[in-house]
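Re: weekly structure request thread

Next one in the queue (149 aa):
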Amino acid sequence: MAQATPLNDAQIKRALRYCQARRHVTRDTTILQFSLYTGLRAKELAALRISDVYDTEGAVRTQFTLSKSQTKGSRARTVFVNKQLAQQLAVYRKWRHCSASNAPLFRSQKGGTLLSQHNVPAVPQHILRMWTARCKQSQWKTHIHHTLG
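Done, posted below.
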């Protein structure tokens, strides 16, 4: 199997700019940045809860641990949150308006159905496909988690 090609800085900037034109700007930008800056896979993003990312006061954690059930390899792992992601998560917290610690971090665009491991990748993958088409880039072969993760 071929190794996925990471996105370069210009591609990342274009993808983030594209998020600004989407209906759910804050959610889509947060999902994309989460994937880019932490290397989390779709299943791991879908498994995140409010309490994984925010402390009891609502502040963004600088790091958190994914349990074995939340990861692809069934191994617990520590995830570090950088400054850019922490800033975006603070914005997302205000936009999300959810204080239930056990609630999923990301919900569907309709707000009712939880994002699952099957439709979480649709957001970053769709963002990348759309800007690829818009920018007339050649077809890309990449997985976001290979970029910075």
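Helices lie at 9-19, 25-38, 42-47, 50-53, 83-96, 122-134. The domain at 9-143 is CATH 1.10.443.10 (hpI Integrase; Chain A).
Next request, please.
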